[in-house]
Amino acid sequence: MTSAMQPEDTPALRKLYADFKDHHLNPLWTQLGDLMPRQPRPKAVPHVWKWGDLFPLAQASGDLVPVGRGGERRAIGLANPGFGGEAYVSPTLWCAIQYLGPKETAPEHRHSQNAFRFVVEGEGVWTVVNGDPVRMSRGDFLLTPGWNFHGHHNETDQPMAWIDGLDIPFSYNNDVGFFEFGSERVTDYATPRFSRSERLWTYPGLRPLSGLENTVSSPIAAYRWEHTDRALTEQLLLEEEGQPATVEQGHAAVRFVNPTTGGDVMPTIRAEFHRLRDGAETAARREVGSSVFQVFDGRGAVVMGGVTYELEKGDIFVVPSWIPWSLEARTQFDLFRFSDAPIIERLNFNRTLVESGN
Amino acid sequence: MTSAMQPEDTPALRKLYADFKDHHLNPLWTQLGDLMPRQPRPKAVPHVWKWGDLFPLAQASGDLVPVGRGGERRAIGLANPGFGGEAYVSPTLWCAIQYLGPKETAPEHRHSQNAFRFVVEGEGVWTVVNGDPVRMSRGDFLLTPGWNFHGHHNETDQPMAWIDGLDIPFSYNNDVGFFEFGSERVTDYATPRFSRSERLWTYPGLRPLSGLENTVSSPIAAYRWEHTDRALTEQLLLEEEGQPATVEQGHAAVRFVNPTTGGDVMPTIRAEFHRLRDGAETAARREVGSSVFQVFDGRGAVVMGGVTYELEKGDIFVVPSWIPWSLEARTQFDLFRFSDAPIIERLNFNRTLVESGN
Amino acid sequence: MTSAMQPEDTPALRKLYADFKDHHLNPLWTQLGDLMPRQPRPKAVPHVWKWGDLFPLAQASGDLVPVGRGGERRAIGLANPGFGGEAYVSPTLWCAIQYLGPKETAPEHRHSQNAFRFVVEGEGVWTVVNGDPVRMSRGDFLLTPGWNFHGHHNETDQPMAWIDGLDIPFSYNNDVGFFEFGSERVTDYATPRFSRSERLWTYPGLRPLSGLENTVSSPIAAYRWEHTDRALTEQLLLEEEGQPATVEQGHAAVRFVNPTTGGDVMPTIRAEFHRLRDGAETAARREVGSSVFQVFDGRGAVVMGGVTYELEKGDIFVVPSWIPWSLEARTQFDLFRFSDAPIIERLNFNRTLVESGN
Amino acid sequence: MTSAMQPEDTPALRKLYADFKDHHLNPLWTQLGDLMPRQPRPKAVPHVWKWGDLFPLAQASGDLVPVGRGGERRAIGLANPGFGGEAYVSPTLWCAIQYLGPKETAPEHRHSQNAFRFVVEGEGVWTVVNGDPVRMSRGDFLLTPGWNFHGHHNETDQPMAWIDGLDIPFSYNNDVGFFEFGSERVTDYATPRFSRSERLWTYPGLRPLSGLENTVSSPIAAYRWEHTDRALTEQLLLEEEGQPATVEQGHAAVRFVNPTTGGDVMPTIRAEFHRLRDGAETAARREVGSSVFQVFDGRGAVVMGGVTYELEKGDIFVVPSWIPWSLEARTQFDLFRFSDAPIIERLNFNRTLVESGN
């Protein structure tokens, strides 16, 4: 569209624009299409990080970079190619592979940023959240909501790697973050099978009377793979029995929620687990907000913006806002997903468009 | 207090009062103290029903009264002695012992009234809720929220009894109830170990993506004893480890909740399970609203309004509004509790007074 | 329906029923149809109280009955003919005409019961709510939410009468009420035109920063007729301009709300004002819950359960639960309405049936 | 703090860092202090824009730049000096002076971005929001919530200027915005004194029965100065009478709210009006999130980060996140304020620190 508002380039206009600059002003009419596009036009691009690349690089950093106070974590952020090097996987989300060598400790600290970990393989690390030791094992989803002290330690002779998800870019861009150092060693080196938070909170539909106040984030420190797997298995069995249980044909899914409210686990991050039957395809959809997936098991593909990316275990991909995406399963196909949907929904910017056909 | 408003008994006053009556009027000043007492003055009285009386009477009714359409249920309501025979355990709540003989079926129907069942002993009955067969076993808490079709059938050669809880008096007094007959036989005689509702909904902190709309009542049809028992066991273990987990010393407790909201299972009825260590005593408290308890296991006592009632397995007692009550455990002491607390709280009439000492 | 559960009347059965009685039990099968009817079957009946009867009787009581401590209020309750004399207008609601003679004071007290006043005529009384003097004038709707101290005094040489609405029956039946006497004289005899509550809270869409905590009940002590009248007038004008503004053709209506939430003014009582154009008729509807209307101005009729009742200024009528009702305007017809809808809705018992035609 | 994680600069490390870059990775340990500072460290800086500069530049643009389709609005954005020229007043907020010449029309469009206007002087423009013409006059606060069509036209022979506030930077950074062109002329050139939205919605505590569904944003299109002024005047009078009514001594304030919820007018923007008595000073406070103020009347100063800025009518200043700020009144001092507080609060990042003394 040509604009009625592009005036003739006269000395007077140049003087006006120079005056704008001098007074820290900037007119809307020269930049409207960029600032307020017809639909989201993300700088972030669709991208896949291969686990086959990530894990060796994490190992190499384990050899070269000690973990400790100051740097705090041996975490390597996924830097969306659209952002010119910044370690943001999307405009709101941070995703990193974190690596802890045998017997290492990552010191305790806390921050306003909400954090989780998801374990695609390995075991032997405990994360200590506000003094409660939480075992980390394959398939577990673990929470460290904002302002909870936390550190990690590896009890074994094997290194362990997992992914971290945080709202670092959102916090950074909007100036909301606080950070505080804690103990240089974790405050409890016990290695219980289940954290105290789990022993209190992980009975379906049961709420301790000592925990009747709703909490901003979930009080469950660890969502165990055993439960996630069974939930998905049952959805597919129920579908076979002709019962409504899946989101779409061949596509089982659960959301991780805060049991005190039934809502998202943390105020800024949604987390889900998806399972597709071998051969299943999802509808193509566009959503406002950005998502990150990690393949947990099986093989398949994601189609983003018309391009098909083949995927295997551990691969991570990002779907920027309003990019059409769909999944295709080459085997049974399990994926962990997290997104900024709570931000989008709480501020009423959510829209979804399900496209006909795939 | 003597009232300034008790006028002299004159012919004019008698005429006035007669005129009031003729015009369907009734003055406040003659009845204020009754209508608006200084504190709740319930007609309902504290009372204990002994399981040793209830069960044989239920058996006898099994011999004499067929179950079927019209009467619908072989349920015998607990009639608070303060109400002159009405089958209300409290002004808001109904509690009955229901009995189903070998191979019997109680036909399907639905009603606005919210209902649950709690099983103090036995097994072999399935309740079919909107077509979903739900096993009933000792310790299970089972829901039939308002307007869900439901019937029961006994698969075995043994009779089975359990308690029903409903908001029948509340619905009756406030004219809110609808009722509809359904199938004379239950719509599905399958006897699965777990209902479809459980297969979808009973994973801690996991919510199916096909169930993202919040529901007025819990979608969980059965809360199993295994989970309740473990939750209580862990609370007491955590207490021994010096962790905050119990409501008061030696007193573990859970509330049954709707996983879509974290709130009560149904809009009018709260349900909880309490466990006291051998020798523990609870603080004495007064609460607005009425509660019913059934002893599930162990021996102990309840003190209500200063009177001590000894209790054993199956005994049921009612605590009317604002009557001080406390529990004493003679062994490990397990009690199921239900109450009208959601009514009281949603209408902001709740008050609690914890008395010093016991 | 004949019941399969009416067993033969044998000595054994009689013995069983006698045993039930001895043990404070009462079977469901003999009373199901009464306790759980197909649809609400209220004891309360539709009824009209004529202002032409009410006001003279209130005057007569002003001559014969002093107002003061103990009886507290010269209030004459409307006793639904279905209740055998009890001063309940419906199972949940109390409605009374209150009368205060020249220079009289009704002493201060407070109670859990939620109360309001509506003024169909007159002026000159101030009600003092937690120390804040509130003028009462024709058309005003005035709140005394639960547990606020309040008393009234008449500044003039003329008596004044108005109606009171409370949740006394609900509180009484469910044992939730507390009551406390306050000062024998009101604590402030000032007669300001506007209460402090109005000076803080009655600017459209403006909330004082000193009042950011939501309150259970509205902080507005007086809803003035001037605003109600203008709101209704504008709705009818907008309707004439072809804009959506009325609830149905020729029927303007507003709800009085708590500005901190947008919800009902008090947890148990809804209040509305309705205006019909001359000649308008409303659709016939059935609703769960009970309502009371007072004609504020004009002439018309209400049809309840197929019976037409002619109405004029001051007349009060009650619509019990699920009774079909509609209004017909013989002139412009203004009605104040209050109901127990918040109770019904918060407990999810609400249903409405709009009948085709009238 | 020196970091344990700054490894020796070896060829192997350089190789590792190069590999990171090649694979779109970026380690946390080299940038933690920047990404996750101890407290918010905004790029935005405190800044004041003088009305004496803004208005003449807007006039000049009125002479040189036609208004019309494409550029859409003659709006000149305030560019925070910390952002290097981008037209963001803070990381979340846009603030512009908009100017409309005699008889001009700004065409209709709609966008996801939430918008408001505040009028510091002048009159004669109507903004047409979803077909409803809304008069704009001095002191009025006017809403255009996301996805409402809107255009403006000036009825007079005088130009008019006002400020616009939007969440453009937030929408842009997080990829949530949609935009659609509408009519090139406004759809209704009527010039009523009050919009239809006001005629329906601006009666204190009254809600039309035709508007019982809660809305994401306020249905009130215009908050009039008359009400704002009276609300502030009464707060200060009540304070003089010894009543609690102000936020702090000599400081009256109101929040503009959505009457359907009592909450903020739009999901991303809070708006308030503050009045200080001559000589009053506010406490110094730090808040998470950014605010913009415009002086509406009087003279005074703001202290930001220890620097005092003198202010007069029309001056606009921004307070970035966590910068300490306080106000000082040299006369009665009136300020309009808007902020991103709803974003901060809905995502639970809110913190406030009131500093002792000033």
Automatic annotation (TrEMBL), chains A, B, C, D:
UniProt entry tagged with the keyword Oxidoreductase: yes
Pfam families xref list: Cupin_2
A GO term for molecular function: dioxygenase activity
Top-rank taxon, per record: Bacteria
Start and end residues of each Cupin type-2 domain: 98-164
Key words, A-Z: Dioxygenase, Oxidoreductase
InterPro entries (UniProt xref): Cupin_2, GDO-like, RmlC-like_jellyroll, RmlC_Cupin_sf
Membrane-spanning ranges: none
PANTHER family xrefs: 1,2-DIOXYGENASE PROTEIN-RELATED, CUPIN
Protein name: Cupin
